[in-house]
Amino acid sequence: MKQENFSYKLANGVIYTVLSIVGIITLLPFLYVIVVSFTDPSEYISKPLIIFPEKWSLSSYEYILSTKMFTRSLGVSAFLAIVGSAFSIIITSALSYALSRKRFLGKRFFLLAILLTMLFNPGMIPNYMLVHSLGLIDTVWSLILPVLTSAWYVFLMKNFYQEIPDELEEAAKIDGCNDIGVFIRIMLPVSLPAIAAFGLFFAVGFWNTYFNGVLYINDDSLRPMQVVLQMMLIQASTSVADPAVAAMLQSEQMIPPETIKMAAVVIASVPIIMVYPFLQKYFVKGMMVGSVKG
After folding, report:
1. What membrane topology was assigned to this protein in its record (predicted)?
2. Is 1.10.3720.10 the CATH number for 58-294?
3. 160: Cβ–Cβ under 8 A, 6 or more apart, which residues?
4. Other C-beta atoms lying within 10 Å of the C-beta of residue 146
5. Is the pTM for the entire model greater than 0.90?
6. pLDDT above 90 (res 80)
7. Confidence band (pLDDT; 50, 70, 90) for 293?
8. Residue 141 CA to its chain's centroid (Å)
9. Are 99 and 110 in contact (CB under 8 A)?
């Protein structure tokens, strides 16, 4: 018995040690990015490989936040995360509720159509032709409408609504509510945990918008933050770059492009990092919403 306890503790100790080492190795690049972003430019120029700087400075953050291009991109990404998530929640919850009702005419047709979007992707060219034909090129709506909802989220939320007792809907209709009233006054309050979970998923997706920004946006003032950040990251490693980004990275005196890029990475990551700890429980619940039927 003692031998088994010793073996169990030894195995746990080895596992925890290995996981701790892997965790530290994983965190090192993030710590290096933070350290470099706060390093004094003169110290970074003299010794680029820095573990713990002797001089700390906010000059990279002050410079990057003073540039119009990056601050505009922050505003575009914030608009996408807030407005895009709001529209996505409305469309997804309303569509899911309608599909969860047995009396909905054409229910099977719409379910099949939504399922097909999961199985078959039309590809980049048809998507671009559709967005172009709608006149959405170089507008923020080209970054919202094509990804307004997700078939997977619709099916999960549909199952969630099906688990809500029908007696709630019947009681509301006895009190005089129509279908829209039932949805707004009964179903939405009941489904707030699911809405919060999916809203968080949508917000993270819109905040990290990149590919559609490259594909549909040519106007510098409408580029989302991730596109601008990517352009900044490749600036130092290539001689061909966007003139606006090149001008942004050319500081007046001593600020190296590397510290500016690291500061941009930190600024882009901080909002989501701050939100995650407070809403982590919704992510856990969101993974289970609609996945189990009793």
Report:
1. Multi-pass membrane protein
2. yes
3. 96, 191, 194, 289, 290
4. 16
5. no
6. yes
7. very low
8. 17
9. yes
Query: Which two tokens mark 125?
Result: 């060219």
Counting Cβ atoms within 10 Å, is residue 109 exposed (0-12), middle (13-18) or buried (19+)?
exposed
Helix (H) or strand (E) holding 10: helix 2-37
User: What's the one-letter identity of residue 288?
Assistant: M
What are the beta bridge partners of residue 56? 39
* Residue showing tokens 């009233």: 181
Q: What is the pLDDT of residues 107-143, one digit of tens each?
A: 888 888 888 888 887 888 888 998 999 999 999 999 9
Please say whether the beta carbons of 131 and 161 come within 8 A: no
Reduce the DSSP state of residue 104 to 3 states and report it.
coil
Query: Does residue 79 surpass a pLDDT of 90?
Result: yes
Helix (H, G, I), strand (E, B) or coil at 40: coil
Task: List, as one string, the DSSP characters of 224-255.
Answer: -HHHHHHHHHHHTT-S---HHHHHHH--SSS-
How far is Cα of residue 177 from the mean position of the Cα atoms in its chain?
36
φ/ψ of 241, rounded to 5, equals: -150, 165
Residue written as tokens 């990404």? 77
Q: Which residues, in sequence order, are CB contacts of 131 under 8 Å at separation 6+?
A: 137, 142, 145, 146, 216
Q: Residue 67 corresponds to which tokens in the numbers above?
A: 């540039």
**Both tokens of residue 137?**
């090129």
Neighbours of 116 (CB within 10 A): 10
Alpha-carbon distance of 38 to 17, in angstroms, equals 31
Cβ atoms of 160 and 191 closer than 8 Å: yes
- DSSP 3-state assignment of 234? helix
Cα–Cα distance measured from residue 48 to residue 36, given in angstroms and rounded to the nearest whole number: 9
Residue 32 pLDDT level (bands cut at 50, 70, 90) = confident
